[in-house]
Amino acid sequence: MTAAVAYAAAPAAAVPCPETPRASTGARPRTGGGLRVRVPLRLVVGAQYRDAALSVYIKIAALAMRPEGCTAKVSVLAEYLGLSKSVVERGLKDLSHPDEVDGLVEVVTTRRTLRGGRGQSAHRVVRKATEAEHFVWVPVRAADALSPRLLRLYALIAYAEARNVPLAVGDLGGMLYHHTGTKAGQHLGDRQAARLIEELGSTGWITVHARQGLQGRHAYETHRHPIHPAAQAPAAAPVIHDGSGAVSAGGSLASREDQRTDRPVKRAGVGGSIRRRRDAGSSARGHSEKRSNSSGAYRGPGLQLSPRVWQVLEPVRPELPGISPYVLRRIGQEIGRQLSAGVGMERLTTRLLTRYSRLTAHGPAAERARRGDVGRWILGAGLPRHGCRLDSCEDGVTWATRERCHLCANIAAAAAEAERLAAEEARAQQPAVAAPPPEPPAPSRPPTTWLPWPPPPPDPGPALPDGDEREQLRAAATPEAVRQALAVHGAPTAIRLYGHALVLPHLTKHHDEGTTAS
Prior knowledge:
two-stranded antiparallel sheet; 41% helix
Protein backbone atom coordinates (compact mmCIF):
# COMPACT_ATOMS: atom_id res chain seq x y z
CA MET A 1 0.00 0.00 0.00
CA THR A 2 1.38 3.35 -0.94
CA ALA A 3 1.50 6.22 1.46
CA ALA A 4 -1.04 8.28 -0.54
CA VAL A 5 -3.69 5.57 -0.13
CA ALA A 6 -2.77 5.16 3.53
CA TYR A 7 -3.35 8.89 4.03
CA ALA A 8 -6.83 8.83 2.55
CA ALA A 9 -7.81 5.69 4.52
CA ALA A 10 -6.21 6.57 7.87
CA PRO A 11 -8.66 7.08 10.77
CA ALA A 12 -8.39 9.98 13.17
CA ALA A 13 -6.22 7.99 15.62
CA ALA A 14 -4.83 5.26 13.41
CA VAL A 15 -1.49 4.65 15.14
CA PRO A 16 -0.57 5.47 18.73
CA CYS A 17 2.12 8.09 18.44
CA PRO A 18 3.79 9.68 21.47
CA GLU A 19 3.17 13.37 21.95
CA THR A 20 6.20 15.39 20.88
CA PRO A 21 7.24 18.62 22.64
CA ARG A 22 5.85 21.70 20.97
CA ALA A 23 8.61 23.68 19.33
CA SER A 24 6.46 26.80 19.41
CA THR A 25 6.88 26.99 23.19
CA GLY A 26 9.10 29.99 23.85
CA ALA A 27 9.14 30.94 20.16
CA ARG A 28 8.47 34.45 18.89
CA PRO A 29 6.11 34.52 15.86
CA ARG A 30 6.35 37.26 13.30
CA THR A 31 2.64 38.04 13.22
CA GLY A 32 -0.66 36.23 13.87
CA GLY A 33 -1.54 32.93 12.26
CA GLY A 34 -3.58 34.56 9.50
CA LEU A 35 -6.24 33.09 7.23
CA ARG A 36 -6.42 29.37 6.54
CA VAL A 37 -8.02 27.56 3.59
CA ARG A 38 -9.66 24.14 3.61
CA VAL A 39 -7.93 22.20 0.81
CA PRO A 40 -9.30 18.85 -0.47
CA LEU A 41 -6.83 16.05 0.15
CA ARG A 42 -7.13 14.89 -3.46
CA LEU A 43 -5.32 18.08 -4.53
CA VAL A 44 -2.44 17.27 -2.19
CA VAL A 45 -1.92 13.57 -2.95
CA GLY A 46 -3.22 13.40 -6.53
CA ALA A 47 -0.47 12.76 -9.07
CA GLN A 48 -2.62 14.31 -11.82
CA TYR A 49 -2.15 17.79 -10.34
CA ARG A 50 1.05 19.80 -10.68
CA ASP A 51 2.66 21.28 -7.59
CA ALA A 52 1.69 24.79 -8.73
CA ALA A 53 -2.00 23.79 -8.79
CA LEU A 54 -2.05 23.65 -4.99
CA SER A 55 -0.62 27.18 -4.65
CA VAL A 56 -3.08 28.57 -7.21
CA TYR A 57 -6.02 26.83 -5.50
CA ILE A 58 -5.19 28.28 -2.07
CA LYS A 59 -4.83 31.82 -3.43
CA ILE A 60 -8.08 31.62 -5.44
CA ALA A 61 -9.96 30.12 -2.47
CA ALA A 62 -8.73 32.93 -0.22
CA LEU A 63 -9.68 35.66 -2.71
CA ALA A 64 -13.08 34.02 -3.33
CA MET A 65 -14.02 34.67 0.31
CA ARG A 66 -14.44 38.35 -0.48
CA PRO A 67 -17.97 39.63 -1.27
CA GLU A 68 -17.07 40.26 -4.90
CA GLY A 69 -15.25 36.90 -5.18
CA CYS A 70 -11.94 36.25 -6.92
CA THR A 71 -11.57 38.58 -9.89
CA ALA A 72 -7.78 38.73 -10.01
CA LYS A 73 -6.08 38.25 -13.37
CA VAL A 74 -3.53 35.53 -13.95
CA SER A 75 -0.71 38.06 -13.86
CA VAL A 76 -1.94 39.30 -10.45
CA LEU A 77 -2.12 35.75 -9.09
CA ALA A 78 1.43 35.14 -10.33
CA GLU A 79 2.60 38.31 -8.59
CA TYR A 80 0.95 37.26 -5.32
CA LEU A 81 2.50 33.78 -5.43
CA GLY A 82 5.91 34.83 -6.70
CA LEU A 83 5.64 32.56 -9.75
CA SER A 84 5.79 33.11 -13.47
CA LYS A 85 2.61 33.64 -15.43
CA SER A 86 3.07 30.43 -17.42
CA VAL A 87 3.42 28.34 -14.25
CA VAL A 88 0.21 29.82 -12.84
CA GLU A 89 -1.60 29.20 -16.14
CA ARG A 90 -0.55 25.52 -16.14
CA GLY A 91 -1.70 25.10 -12.55
CA LEU A 92 -4.99 26.85 -13.32
CA LYS A 93 -5.50 24.57 -16.32
CA ASP A 94 -5.35 21.49 -14.06
CA LEU A 95 -7.93 23.03 -11.74
CA SER A 96 -10.33 24.39 -14.40
CA HIS A 97 -10.59 21.21 -16.51
CA PRO A 98 -12.34 17.97 -15.47
CA ASP A 99 -10.04 15.67 -13.55
CA GLU A 100 -9.02 12.61 -15.58
CA VAL A 101 -9.53 10.41 -12.50
CA ASP A 102 -12.79 11.62 -10.93
CA GLY A 103 -14.02 14.13 -13.53
CA LEU A 104 -14.20 16.95 -10.94
CA VAL A 105 -13.54 20.63 -11.65
CA GLU A 106 -11.94 22.30 -8.65
CA VAL A 107 -12.10 25.92 -9.90
CA VAL A 108 -15.13 27.18 -11.84
CA THR A 109 -14.22 30.09 -14.14
CA THR A 110 -16.80 32.53 -15.51
CA ARG A 111 -15.72 34.87 -18.35
CA ARG A 112 -17.00 38.46 -18.15
CA THR A 113 -17.43 41.06 -20.86
CA LEU A 114 -18.60 44.66 -20.59
CA ARG A 115 -21.56 45.97 -22.57
CA GLY A 116 -19.26 47.57 -25.13
CA GLY A 117 -17.44 44.30 -25.77
CA ARG A 118 -14.32 45.02 -23.75
CA GLY A 119 -13.31 42.03 -21.67
CA GLN A 120 -12.81 41.95 -17.92
CA SER A 121 -10.88 39.58 -15.68
CA ALA A 122 -12.61 36.26 -15.10
CA HIS A 123 -14.61 35.48 -11.97
CA ARG A 124 -13.43 32.30 -10.24
CA VAL A 125 -14.84 30.22 -7.37
CA VAL A 126 -13.75 26.88 -5.92
CA ARG A 127 -15.81 23.71 -5.79
CA LYS A 128 -17.84 23.12 -2.64
CA ALA A 129 -16.45 20.01 -0.97
CA THR A 130 -18.67 17.28 0.45
CA GLU A 131 -18.90 16.58 4.16
CA ALA A 132 -17.29 13.13 3.86
CA GLU A 133 -14.34 14.38 1.81
CA HIS A 134 -10.89 14.39 3.42
CA PHE A 135 -9.27 17.81 3.68
CA VAL A 136 -6.37 19.67 5.27
CA TRP A 137 -6.13 23.24 6.60
CA VAL A 138 -3.29 25.24 4.98
CA PRO A 139 -2.40 28.86 5.84
CA VAL A 140 -2.69 31.30 2.96
CA ARG A 141 0.64 32.83 3.95
CA ALA A 142 2.33 29.49 3.26
CA ALA A 143 1.25 29.66 -0.40
CA ASP A 144 2.83 33.13 -0.67
CA ALA A 145 6.06 32.24 1.13
CA LEU A 146 6.82 28.66 0.00
CA SER A 147 7.58 27.23 -3.40
CA PRO A 148 4.88 24.92 -4.83
CA ARG A 149 6.80 21.74 -4.01
CA LEU A 150 7.58 22.83 -0.44
CA LEU A 151 3.94 23.88 -0.03
CA ARG A 152 2.78 20.41 -1.07
CA LEU A 153 5.22 18.85 1.39
CA TYR A 154 3.92 21.17 4.12
CA ALA A 155 0.31 20.13 3.38
CA LEU A 156 1.23 16.43 3.55
CA ILE A 157 2.92 16.87 6.94
CA ALA A 158 0.01 18.99 8.24
CA TYR A 159 -2.49 16.28 7.31
CA ALA A 160 -0.36 13.57 8.94
CA GLU A 161 -0.06 15.66 12.11
CA ALA A 162 -3.83 16.24 12.24
CA ARG A 163 -4.59 12.54 11.73
CA ASN A 164 -1.80 11.36 14.07
CA VAL A 165 -0.15 9.26 11.34
CA PRO A 166 3.59 8.53 11.75
CA LEU A 167 5.73 9.50 8.79
CA ALA A 168 8.98 8.28 7.28
CA VAL A 169 11.09 10.01 4.65
CA GLY A 170 10.15 7.31 2.14
CA ASP A 171 6.44 7.97 2.74
CA LEU A 172 6.83 11.64 1.85
CA GLY A 173 8.95 10.84 -1.20
CA GLY A 174 6.26 8.40 -2.38
CA MET A 175 3.66 11.19 -2.47
CA LEU A 176 5.77 13.72 -4.41
CA TYR A 177 6.22 13.27 -8.15
CA HIS A 178 8.34 14.40 -11.07
CA HIS A 179 6.09 16.32 -13.47
CA THR A 180 8.59 17.08 -16.25
CA GLY A 181 11.59 15.46 -17.87
CA THR A 182 12.33 11.78 -18.47
CA LYS A 183 11.14 10.80 -14.96
CA ALA A 184 7.71 12.42 -15.28
CA GLY A 185 5.14 10.50 -13.23
CA GLN A 186 7.73 8.78 -11.01
CA HIS A 187 8.06 9.23 -7.26
CA LEU A 188 10.82 11.23 -5.67
CA GLY A 189 13.60 9.29 -4.01
CA ASP A 190 14.43 9.21 -0.31
CA ARG A 191 17.41 11.56 -0.71
CA GLN A 192 15.38 14.14 -2.62
CA ALA A 193 12.63 13.98 0.01
CA ALA A 194 15.19 14.38 2.81
CA ARG A 195 16.65 17.48 1.14
CA LEU A 196 13.18 18.99 0.74
CA ILE A 197 12.38 18.32 4.40
CA GLU A 198 15.62 19.99 5.46
CA GLU A 199 14.88 22.98 3.21
CA LEU A 200 11.32 23.27 4.56
CA GLY A 201 12.59 23.05 8.14
CA SER A 202 15.05 25.89 7.51
CA THR A 203 12.16 28.18 6.53
CA GLY A 204 10.60 27.83 9.99
CA TRP A 205 7.23 26.51 8.78
CA ILE A 206 7.87 23.08 10.33
CA THR A 207 10.02 21.71 13.13
CA VAL A 208 11.66 18.30 12.78
CA HIS A 209 12.08 16.33 16.00
CA ALA A 210 14.81 13.85 15.16
CA ARG A 211 14.05 10.26 16.19
CA GLN A 212 11.17 11.20 18.47
CA GLY A 213 8.32 9.62 16.55
CA LEU A 214 6.96 6.08 16.49
CA GLN A 215 9.65 3.37 16.13
CA GLY A 216 12.46 5.91 15.86
CA ARG A 217 10.97 7.96 13.05
CA HIS A 218 11.27 11.72 12.90
CA ALA A 219 8.33 13.62 14.37
CA TYR A 220 7.15 16.69 12.45
CA GLU A 221 5.36 19.76 13.78
CA THR A 222 3.77 22.31 11.47
CA HIS A 223 3.21 25.98 12.30
CA ARG A 224 0.68 28.50 11.05
CA HIS A 225 3.49 31.01 10.62
CA PRO A 226 7.29 30.78 10.40
CA ILE A 227 8.86 30.91 13.84
CA HIS A 228 12.23 31.96 15.20
CA PRO A 229 13.26 29.75 18.13
CA ALA A 230 14.03 31.85 21.21
CA ALA A 231 16.19 31.05 24.23
CA GLN A 232 14.66 28.10 26.04
CA ALA A 233 15.56 25.43 28.57
CA PRO A 234 17.80 22.59 27.36
CA ALA A 235 15.03 20.08 28.18
CA ALA A 236 12.82 21.51 25.44
CA ALA A 237 15.21 20.23 22.74
CA PRO A 238 15.99 16.55 22.22
CA VAL A 239 19.27 15.31 23.71
CA ILE A 240 20.82 12.79 21.35
CA HIS A 241 24.47 12.86 22.38
CA ASP A 242 24.64 9.17 23.32
CA GLY A 243 21.91 7.66 21.13
CA SER A 244 18.91 8.25 18.95
CA GLY A 245 16.49 8.78 21.84
CA ALA A 246 15.57 12.04 23.57
CA VAL A 247 16.14 10.74 27.11
CA SER A 248 18.89 11.50 29.59
CA ALA A 249 20.24 7.94 29.49
CA GLY A 250 20.52 7.98 25.70
CA GLY A 251 20.16 4.73 23.79
CA SER A 252 17.84 3.65 21.02
CA LEU A 253 14.07 3.99 20.80
CA ALA A 254 13.68 0.41 19.56
CA SER A 255 11.22 -1.66 21.59
CA ARG A 256 13.08 -4.93 20.98
CA GLU A 257 16.74 -5.70 20.40
CA ASP A 258 18.14 -8.40 18.15
CA GLN A 259 20.21 -10.59 20.50
CA ARG A 260 21.99 -12.28 17.62
CA THR A 261 23.98 -9.11 16.99
CA ASP A 262 26.00 -9.76 20.20
CA ARG A 263 28.48 -12.08 18.52
CA PRO A 264 32.30 -12.09 18.83
CA VAL A 265 34.33 -10.08 16.36
CA LYS A 266 35.89 -12.47 13.82
CA ARG A 267 38.60 -10.16 12.59
CA ALA A 268 41.09 -8.13 14.51
CA GLY A 269 41.10 -4.36 14.65
CA VAL A 270 38.35 -1.81 14.82
CA GLY A 271 36.63 0.32 12.27
CA GLY A 272 34.55 -2.43 10.67
CA SER A 273 31.48 -1.14 8.91
CA ILE A 274 27.90 -2.23 9.47
CA ARG A 275 25.93 -2.73 6.32
CA ARG A 276 22.28 -1.75 6.52
CA ARG A 277 19.91 -3.36 4.12
CA ARG A 278 17.20 -1.19 2.65
CA ASP A 279 13.59 -2.16 2.99
CA ALA A 280 12.56 -4.69 0.35
CA GLY A 281 9.42 -2.72 -0.38
CA SER A 282 6.85 -4.14 2.02
CA SER A 283 3.39 -2.76 1.50
CA ALA A 284 3.17 -1.76 5.17
CA ARG A 285 5.53 1.16 5.70
CA GLY A 286 7.75 1.04 8.71
CA HIS A 287 8.09 -2.76 8.88
CA SER A 288 11.50 -3.38 7.40
CA GLU A 289 13.04 -6.81 7.06
CA LYS A 290 15.58 -7.92 9.63
CA ARG A 291 18.22 -10.23 8.25
CA SER A 292 21.35 -11.61 9.80
CA ASN A 293 24.71 -11.50 8.08
CA SER A 294 25.33 -15.10 9.12
CA SER A 295 22.07 -16.55 7.77
CA GLY A 296 19.92 -15.78 4.75
CA ALA A 297 16.65 -16.80 6.45
CA TYR A 298 14.03 -14.13 6.96
CA ARG A 299 13.43 -13.48 10.68
CA GLY A 300 11.46 -10.24 10.56
CA PRO A 301 7.71 -9.65 10.91
CA GLY A 302 5.26 -11.38 8.63
CA LEU A 303 3.92 -9.89 5.44
CA GLN A 304 1.30 -7.21 6.07
CA LEU A 305 -0.98 -5.79 3.40
CA SER A 306 -3.46 -2.98 3.73
CA PRO A 307 -7.24 -3.57 3.87
CA ARG A 308 -7.64 -2.00 0.43
CA VAL A 309 -5.15 -4.42 -1.10
CA TRP A 310 -6.95 -7.36 0.50
CA GLN A 311 -10.26 -6.08 -0.85
CA VAL A 312 -8.84 -5.83 -4.37
CA LEU A 313 -7.49 -9.40 -4.07
CA GLU A 314 -10.86 -10.74 -2.86
CA PRO A 315 -11.71 -12.50 -6.19
CA VAL A 316 -8.48 -14.56 -6.02
CA ARG A 317 -8.30 -15.06 -2.26
CA PRO A 318 -8.39 -18.92 -2.54
CA GLU A 319 -5.19 -18.73 -4.60
CA LEU A 320 -3.25 -16.47 -2.20
CA PRO A 321 -1.95 -19.19 0.19
CA GLY A 322 0.04 -20.73 -2.66
CA ILE A 323 1.81 -17.47 -3.56
CA SER A 324 5.25 -16.77 -2.12
CA PRO A 325 5.64 -13.74 0.20
CA TYR A 326 7.97 -12.05 -2.29
CA VAL A 327 5.50 -12.27 -5.18
CA LEU A 328 2.62 -11.29 -2.88
CA ARG A 329 4.60 -8.22 -1.81
CA ARG A 330 5.17 -7.35 -5.48
CA ILE A 331 1.41 -7.68 -6.07
CA GLY A 332 0.71 -5.36 -3.14
CA GLN A 333 3.18 -2.81 -4.51
CA GLU A 334 1.57 -2.92 -7.96
CA ILE A 335 -1.93 -2.47 -6.51
CA GLY A 336 -0.70 0.41 -4.34
CA ARG A 337 0.98 2.05 -7.32
CA GLN A 338 -2.22 1.94 -9.38
CA LEU A 339 -4.32 3.19 -6.47
CA SER A 340 -1.98 6.11 -5.90
CA ALA A 341 -2.11 6.92 -9.62
CA GLY A 342 -5.87 7.40 -9.34
CA VAL A 343 -7.24 4.00 -10.43
CA GLY A 344 -10.29 3.29 -8.28
CA MET A 345 -10.47 0.26 -5.99
CA GLU A 346 -13.74 -0.88 -7.59
CA ARG A 347 -12.15 -0.73 -11.04
CA LEU A 348 -9.20 -2.89 -9.96
CA THR A 349 -11.49 -5.43 -8.25
CA THR A 350 -13.76 -5.67 -11.28
CA ARG A 351 -10.77 -6.06 -13.60
CA LEU A 352 -9.31 -8.90 -11.54
CA LEU A 353 -12.71 -10.57 -11.08
CA THR A 354 -13.50 -10.49 -14.81
CA ARG A 355 -10.17 -11.92 -15.90
CA TYR A 356 -10.13 -14.55 -13.16
CA SER A 357 -13.65 -15.64 -14.16
CA ARG A 358 -12.45 -16.08 -17.75
CA LEU A 359 -9.52 -18.12 -16.50
CA THR A 360 -11.65 -20.42 -14.33
CA ALA A 361 -14.10 -20.90 -17.20
CA HIS A 362 -11.35 -22.84 -19.03
CA GLY A 363 -10.49 -25.78 -16.81
CA PRO A 364 -7.17 -26.83 -18.43
CA ALA A 365 -5.89 -23.26 -18.58
CA ALA A 366 -6.74 -22.66 -14.92
CA GLU A 367 -5.08 -25.93 -13.94
CA ARG A 368 -1.90 -24.98 -15.82
CA ALA A 369 -1.90 -21.58 -14.04
CA ARG A 370 -2.23 -23.31 -10.67
CA ARG A 371 0.53 -25.79 -11.49
CA GLY A 372 2.71 -22.85 -12.48
CA ASP A 373 2.56 -19.64 -10.49
CA VAL A 374 -0.76 -17.86 -10.14
CA GLY A 375 1.10 -14.92 -8.60
CA ARG A 376 2.89 -14.29 -11.87
CA TRP A 377 -0.47 -14.50 -13.66
CA ILE A 378 -1.88 -11.81 -11.35
CA LEU A 379 1.13 -9.54 -12.01
CA GLY A 380 1.33 -10.18 -15.74
CA ALA A 381 -2.30 -10.66 -16.79
CA GLY A 382 -4.69 -9.93 -13.93
CA LEU A 383 -3.67 -6.40 -12.86
CA PRO A 384 -2.28 -4.59 -15.96
CA ARG A 385 -4.70 -2.29 -17.78
CA HIS A 386 -5.60 -3.28 -21.33
CA GLY A 387 -6.65 -0.59 -23.74
CA CYS A 388 -5.39 2.49 -25.56
CA ARG A 389 -3.25 5.28 -24.16
CA LEU A 390 -6.23 6.94 -22.45
CA ASP A 391 -6.26 6.19 -18.72
CA SER A 392 -10.07 6.04 -18.77
CA CYS A 393 -10.03 3.16 -21.29
CA GLU A 394 -10.61 -0.30 -19.80
CA ASP A 395 -10.43 -3.16 -22.35
CA GLY A 396 -11.76 -0.89 -25.09
CA VAL A 397 -14.57 0.58 -22.95
CA THR A 398 -14.62 3.95 -21.15
CA TRP A 399 -14.85 3.05 -17.46
CA ALA A 400 -16.90 6.04 -16.32
CA THR A 401 -19.63 5.80 -19.00
CA ARG A 402 -19.40 2.08 -19.94
CA GLU A 403 -19.39 3.12 -23.60
CA ARG A 404 -16.97 2.00 -26.28
CA CYS A 405 -13.74 4.00 -26.27
CA HIS A 406 -13.70 6.35 -29.25
CA LEU A 407 -9.91 6.11 -29.61
CA CYS A 408 -10.00 2.29 -29.68
CA ALA A 409 -12.79 2.45 -32.26
CA ASN A 410 -10.71 4.78 -34.45
CA ILE A 411 -7.66 2.53 -34.12
CA ALA A 412 -9.70 -0.55 -35.07
CA ALA A 413 -11.26 1.26 -38.04
CA ALA A 414 -7.82 2.44 -39.22
CA ALA A 415 -6.42 -1.09 -38.92
CA ALA A 416 -9.35 -2.55 -40.89
CA GLU A 417 -8.93 0.09 -43.62
CA ALA A 418 -5.19 -0.60 -43.84
CA GLU A 419 -5.86 -4.34 -44.10
CA ARG A 420 -8.41 -3.76 -46.87
CA LEU A 421 -6.00 -1.55 -48.83
CA ALA A 422 -3.22 -4.13 -48.44
CA ALA A 423 -5.52 -6.88 -49.73
CA GLU A 424 -6.56 -4.78 -52.75
CA GLU A 425 -2.92 -3.98 -53.51
CA ALA A 426 -2.00 -7.65 -53.28
CA ARG A 427 -4.80 -8.62 -55.66
CA ALA A 428 -3.74 -5.89 -58.10
CA GLN A 429 -0.15 -7.18 -58.16
CA GLN A 430 -1.18 -10.77 -58.94
CA PRO A 431 -0.60 -11.77 -62.64
CA ALA A 432 -3.63 -12.17 -64.87
CA VAL A 433 -4.64 -15.81 -65.35
CA ALA A 434 -6.72 -17.46 -68.03
CA ALA A 435 -10.38 -17.86 -67.36
CA PRO A 436 -11.17 -21.27 -65.89
CA PRO A 437 -13.15 -23.72 -68.05
CA PRO A 438 -16.90 -23.63 -67.59
CA GLU A 439 -18.17 -25.81 -64.82
CA PRO A 440 -20.48 -28.70 -65.62
CA PRO A 441 -24.15 -28.10 -64.95
CA ALA A 442 -25.14 -28.69 -61.41
CA PRO A 443 -27.27 -31.72 -60.69
CA SER A 444 -30.92 -31.29 -59.97
CA ARG A 445 -31.66 -30.11 -56.47
CA PRO A 446 -33.31 -32.52 -54.06
CA PRO A 447 -36.78 -31.71 -52.79
CA THR A 448 -36.91 -29.03 -50.11
CA THR A 449 -37.39 -30.34 -46.59
CA TRP A 450 -38.87 -27.83 -44.14
CA LEU A 451 -37.38 -27.93 -40.68
CA PRO A 452 -39.43 -27.18 -37.55
CA TRP A 453 -39.37 -23.62 -36.15
CA PRO A 454 -36.52 -23.21 -33.65
CA PRO A 455 -37.46 -22.94 -29.99
CA PRO A 456 -37.72 -19.46 -28.46
CA PRO A 457 -34.51 -17.93 -27.02
CA PRO A 458 -33.79 -18.48 -23.35
CA ASP A 459 -35.11 -16.08 -20.77
CA PRO A 460 -32.64 -13.15 -20.58
CA GLY A 461 -33.16 -12.96 -16.82
CA PRO A 462 -34.99 -10.58 -14.57
CA ALA A 463 -35.30 -6.97 -15.59
CA LEU A 464 -32.93 -4.82 -13.61
CA PRO A 465 -34.69 -2.30 -11.34
CA ASP A 466 -33.91 1.38 -11.47
CA GLY A 467 -31.66 3.23 -9.00
CA ASP A 468 -34.18 3.74 -6.14
CA GLU A 469 -35.57 0.20 -6.33
CA ARG A 470 -32.04 -1.20 -6.51
CA GLU A 471 -31.03 0.67 -3.34
CA GLN A 472 -34.14 -0.67 -1.53
CA LEU A 473 -33.37 -4.18 -2.79
CA ARG A 474 -29.79 -3.97 -1.51
CA ALA A 475 -30.88 -2.53 1.84
CA ALA A 476 -33.29 -5.45 2.40
CA ALA A 477 -30.95 -8.11 1.00
CA THR A 478 -30.19 -11.17 3.10
CA PRO A 479 -27.40 -13.75 2.63
CA GLU A 480 -30.01 -16.29 1.52
CA ALA A 481 -31.35 -13.91 -1.14
CA VAL A 482 -27.83 -13.23 -2.46
CA ARG A 483 -27.00 -16.93 -2.62
CA GLN A 484 -30.34 -17.61 -4.34
CA ALA A 485 -29.55 -14.94 -6.94
CA LEU A 486 -26.09 -16.45 -7.50
CA ALA A 487 -27.53 -19.94 -7.98
CA VAL A 488 -30.40 -18.86 -10.26
CA HIS A 489 -29.07 -15.96 -12.34
CA GLY A 490 -25.27 -16.25 -12.11
CA ALA A 491 -22.55 -14.00 -10.79
CA PRO A 492 -22.82 -11.08 -13.32
CA THR A 493 -26.57 -10.58 -12.79
CA ALA A 494 -26.26 -10.96 -9.01
CA ILE A 495 -23.50 -8.35 -8.93
CA ARG A 496 -25.62 -5.89 -10.94
CA LEU A 497 -28.55 -6.49 -8.55
CA TYR A 498 -26.82 -6.44 -5.16
CA GLY A 499 -23.37 -4.93 -5.86
CA HIS A 500 -19.84 -6.23 -5.26
CA ALA A 501 -19.89 -5.68 -1.49
CA LEU A 502 -22.79 -8.13 -0.93
CA VAL A 503 -21.96 -10.70 -3.63
CA LEU A 504 -18.18 -11.09 -3.28
CA PRO A 505 -18.31 -12.79 0.19
CA HIS A 506 -20.48 -15.54 -1.36
CA LEU A 507 -18.78 -15.67 -4.78
CA THR A 508 -15.84 -17.90 -3.73
CA LYS A 509 -18.22 -20.52 -2.38
CA HIS A 510 -20.90 -20.41 -5.09
CA HIS A 511 -19.19 -19.22 -8.24
CA ASP A 512 -19.04 -22.68 -9.76
CA GLU A 513 -22.79 -23.17 -9.78
CA GLY A 514 -23.61 -19.46 -10.08
CA THR A 515 -22.04 -18.95 -13.49
CA THR A 516 -24.94 -20.63 -15.35
CA ALA A 517 -28.47 -19.32 -15.29
CA SER A 518 -31.38 -21.62 -14.65
